[in-house]
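Pipeline run #58 for the internal structure catalog. This entry was flagged by the ingest filter as a single-chain record with no existing model, so it goes straight to prediction. Upstream metadata was stripped on purpose; only the residue string is passed forward. Reviewer on rotation: M.T. Logging verbosity set to normal.
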Amino acid sequence: MVLEPNARTERPAVPPASTSDTNSKIAALVKLITKEGPQITQIARELGVHKETARYWYKERLLKKGYTVQAVPNHERLGMRRVVALAEFSETFRPYGDAVLMAMSELCYLTSFAKTLPDDLYSIQASVPQEHANDWIRFMHALKQRGVFSSIQAVSFDWVRVVPMRSEIYDFEHDSWQYDWASKPKVEPGSLSYTPSTKGKIDPIDLNMIKQLQIDPNASLIEIGDKLKVNYKTLTWHHRKHLIGGGLIKGYMVNWTGTRYDPKLERALHRRHRYMWLELMVSGVTETERMQVMAKVNQLPFVWFEAGGQNYFAQIAFPTETMTEALTFIKDATSSVRQKATWHFMDQANALRFSITPSLYDQEHKKWKFDQVELLSKFDSLVLEIKGMTS
């Protein structure tokens, strides 16, 4: 399912008075949301402010200005492995690229896609069952053989992480980064030695809860229970024991780029001309090389997403006015791995993210489904349908 953040905008009853440290308080609020989700009453207590003040900041200074919040699943705990593919659709299928990929999100674990600029390829991300990562790559190559893709390159990663917003150097009043390119900011502790989580215990209730929190993190457990037809006591136990205690959720993403999905228009809305997205891929790296590149990349506050292992991948959203500095930075950051590094600019107006798909989990056998024969049969039907439309 396409992610549809639900930014509720009811006006709080008591607007707070402005203070000289409002920006720093909002920055602290963002950091707490990243860890705990939008638990406003608890966050207000930790910030030492009235809950209506915290609620005002959250709704008026974040949600109404286009920031959204979504739960971040711990894909390794869910038994998943991240794969990133760079694909070019064949001439026949190019007009149907988005539709094919949206179908794949329901059938074979896609988490996102975006078009590249200016070469018009597709960058495709999937979180697939760990035991089927190589099968998924073979499946994509089988689609190439069937004429869906004219080219496909795919690599897998041991771990993934959504990089928390560096809110302490962001001006929430003017929606701008206060970043000094000449400085050497301290890298976040633990970011370079990141290791994958182990596989945890899951069941359909956990997966459906995670999906709902990806779509709307503001929903209460009562609301989620009503939607899932699960009683509140059972849902609370799963939330406490599995999602939080079992680490099935890593935290929450505060989307500072302003991208959101509009369910009425059925498309993603973007703050156009604000950010230029770049995807960096470094293939076949040693641990030393990976850590060297990560140490440089993580000096930036614009890093959105990372994946690592024998390959390294990063998504970076550069403010458009910094493109000269950005290109110089990327050149310097990859100087030691120049022959292994590639990068592409991304067209976020042609991009979508997806929630997890609980229906792909086989409760009876306690494992994720992946039947390549069945999948190819379904795509064979799709291929015939599309070829019939173009003949």
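catalog note: The two ends are 31 Å apart (CA to CA).
catalog note: The longest strand covers residues 341-353.
status: ready for reviewer M.T.
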